[in-house]
């Protein structure tokens, strides 16, 4: 299918650290039936691909994880033509071997959030009167295998051996875990803990988008480390030290993605046999 109105092909949901150094960027404001996304989007070219950047927490970092309008964010990206998304995020390591500076590309997630809307298909009418059907989306494998492979190869190409696979536990936040919660998460064998990976991944899947999470460990979580527990200062410091090479890996990964029109991964088949009731943007 040829889509001439496309403004972007690939989306990156992450901080402004990823695009502030690009030349020739265009800023664009997008509205959705679910309200405004976290901020205006920035369009730029990487490796010959058109990429839309969206700062997940807003440019002033004013949105805590539980107040991000995830539905608007993913809808906005899709409405621009985006079909493949990278979602880099900072996480805590739940196993001692995943210390600060570890790059882990998860292949599973556990939802421990409590109060987030995680579907477009709840039978509630949109502002324009259209009514999405109730749909149960296949989500056994929450991440795109093609995007994951691109991310892993990109990291290796930059001599940053990533952890290929693992489970991200997503908590409601905005507080960090207690030691007991953290020990429990670790005892389940889960790998990392974050606050934004859900419902981002499932909403992407509901829109038929390929979604790949790149998690950067900024600290060992409370149950694993022996000090005073996670502090925000520590998180910011480690993120700052690694944002440059994470950007390099992301940009290389963008160049390794297939043309969106050729996709045939599981992400494109999540709704086979379903009548969604609405046209996706
Ligand atoms: Zn995919």
TrEMBL record:
Catalysed reactions listed for this entry: a purine D-ribonucleoside + phosphate = a purine nucleobase + alpha-D-ribose 1-phosphate
Record's keyword terms, sorted: Glycosyltransferase, Purine salvage, Transferase
Residues holding substrate: 195, 219-221
Domain of life: Bacteria
EC number: 2.4.2.1
Entry's Gene Ontology molecular function annotations: S-methyl-5-thioadenosine phosphorylase activity
Gene Ontology, cellular component aspect: cytosol
Pathways per UniProt: Purine metabolism; purine nucleoside salvage
Domain Nucleoside phosphorylase: 9-250
Entry's Gene Ontology BP terms: L-methionine salvage from methylthioadenosine; purine ribonucleoside salvage
Short name of any one Pfam family annotated for the protein: PNP_UDP_1
InterPro entries recorded: MTAP (IPR010044), Nucleoside_phosphorylase_d (IPR000845), Nucleoside_phosphorylase_sf (IPR035994)
Feature type site, description Important for substrate specificity: 177, 232
Binding of phosphate, residues: 16, 56-57, 196
Its biological purpose: Purine nucleoside phosphorylase involved in purine salvage.
Other remarks in the entry: Although this enzyme belongs to the family of MTA phosphorylases based on sequence homology, it lacks several conserved amino acids in the substrate binding pocket that confer specificity towards MTA.
Entry's family note: Belongs to the PNP/MTAP phosphorylase family. MTAP subfamily.
Assembly and binders: Homohexamer. Dimer of a homotrimer.
Name of this chain's protein: Purine nucleoside phosphorylase
Organism name: Streptomyces malaysiensis
């Amino acid at each position: 299918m040829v889509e001439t109105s496309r403004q972007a092909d690939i989306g990156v949901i992450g901080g402004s650290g990823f695009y502030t150094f690009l030349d020739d960027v265009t800023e664009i404001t997008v509205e959705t039936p679910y309200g405004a996304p976290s901020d205006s989007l920035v369009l730029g070219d990487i490796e010959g691909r058109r990429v839309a950047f969206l700062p997940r927490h807003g440019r002033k970092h004013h949105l805590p994880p539980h107040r991000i309008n995830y539905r608007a964010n993913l809808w906005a990206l899709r409405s621009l033509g985006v079909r493949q998304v990278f979602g880099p995020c900072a996480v805590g390591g739940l196993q001692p071997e995943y210390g600060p500076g570890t790059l882990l590309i998860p292949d599973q997630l556990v939802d421990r959030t409590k109060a987030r809307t995680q579907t477009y298909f709840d039978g509630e009418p949109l502002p324009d009167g259209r009514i999405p059907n109730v749909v149960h989306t296949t989500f056994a494998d929450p991440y795109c295998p093609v995007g994951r492979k691109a991310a892993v190869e990109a990291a290796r190409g930059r001599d940053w051996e990533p952890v290929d696979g693992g489970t991200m536990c997503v908590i409601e936040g905005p507080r960090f875990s207690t030691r007991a919660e953290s020990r429990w998460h670790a005892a389940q064998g889960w790998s990392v803990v974050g606050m934004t990976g859900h419902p981002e991944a499932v909403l992407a899947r509901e829109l038929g988008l390929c979604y790949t999470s790149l998690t950067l460990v900024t600290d060992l979580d409370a149950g694993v480390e022996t000090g005073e527990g996670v502090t925000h200062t520590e998180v910011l410091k480690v993120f700052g030290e690694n944002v440059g090479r994470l950007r390099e890996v992301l940009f290389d990964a963008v160049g390794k993605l297939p043309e969106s029109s050729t996709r045939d991964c599981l992400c494109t088949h999540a709704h086979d046999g379903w009548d969604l009731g609405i046209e996706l943007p």
